[in-house]
Each structure stands twice: as structure tokens, then as C-alpha cells.
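User: I'm curious whether this sequence folds into something compact or stays loose and floppy. Could you predict its structure so I can see for myself?
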Amino acid sequence: MCKHYKTDQCWRGQECTYAHSLEELHPASPDLPRVEVKETNALAEQQKVEDSAPDVRLKKKKELCNKWKNGQDCVLGRACPYAHGEKELGTVELVVCGRVKTRICKFWTTGSCMFLGNCVNAHGEKELGTKRPDFMTPPMKKRREGELEAQLLFPNRFLTLFGSVRSIDEFREQVIAKKGGKGKGRRLVSLMGMLKKFSSCLC
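Assistant: Here's the prediction. I'll summarize afterward.
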């Protein structure tokens, strides 16, 4: 209930997202995304579930959902803060507030997402509708390490990027020729040398 409406001083009027009467209150929607918790005593797991649960509150739906208008499926369903049809306009429902994960991470699908648990997109269908973390850009050093790990863990993806190159030595020669053996080219060549040593250890 709106605490300002009780004292007849709600300045938001019809725009207020809180209930102004008992008729606007109703139990939680069964369509809300729920996270089932296995029986455990681990506080860390419980905290993780609570952190990923989206913020929800009663809100009047005033606009149509863009995804619904474009004929796409909205993963939030009835918990979407926007109406999915003219009939839902003006209705008050318990909806997701704030930013939630609404699409699968394209980098996760290829195994190369460097954000891991801090990605703003879902890493699997279980994460759809969960709260997004605050956006963070990893430091440059972490990014480079993530790219190197991706190349080591997914060599086929790396080979498709450099498909015309038959070996690391050939790649090294091409880099030196293009860069003149200076600056970034030299660092890249030393990185490729490390990769070569690592790949020979794996064989």
C-alpha cells in the first residue's frame, strides 16, 4: 500500500506504482520466475539464490511490451512490467522491476564469455528472468587472460579465426611481417610462443 495515499498526499496519483486501495492488492502471481532451493544448510547457496531473485512489486501496466508488439516471445510472461495485449493495459499486477537477464549470452554458447558469473546475459535457460549484476568491465589484464584462456580451451574457434594459417610458426612470421617486429607485434609473437609451448605439453 502507498504510505502517502493513506494520508491523502500521494503526489503521483494514477502514476503511483503502489496500491491505493485494497482492490489493487492480490497474492503473488504463479507465473513469476521462481528458483527452487534444494534442502541445504549452506548459507552461501541461500545468499546466491536471494541475490539472483528479481525485485518484484505491484505496478499498473501502461504500455505495450515491445517484444510482444514485434511478435517475439517475452521470457518474463505475466511478470513483464509491460502489457501483452490491449486487455492488460491498465491492469495492476506483480511485475519484475529493475534489470533482469532476458537473453542467452552468445559468447557463453561458444564457451568464450569472459564475464563468467558477472555477465548481464543468461548463461543457460535457468538464468533467464534472474537479476542482472551491476555492469562491470573486467580490467584489461583480466580481459587478455580471458581471451588467452578461450584460445587454449577452444582451439577450434581460434583456428577458424586464423584458418589460412597452418601453424603457429606461420602465424608468427605473418605478424612479424605486418608489424615489422615492433610493439604489439612482438608481444603477440611472444604470446604465440607461449601458446606453442603449452600446446606441445598437452600432446
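Summary: The first strand starts at residue 55 and ends at 60. Residues 140-202 form one domain.
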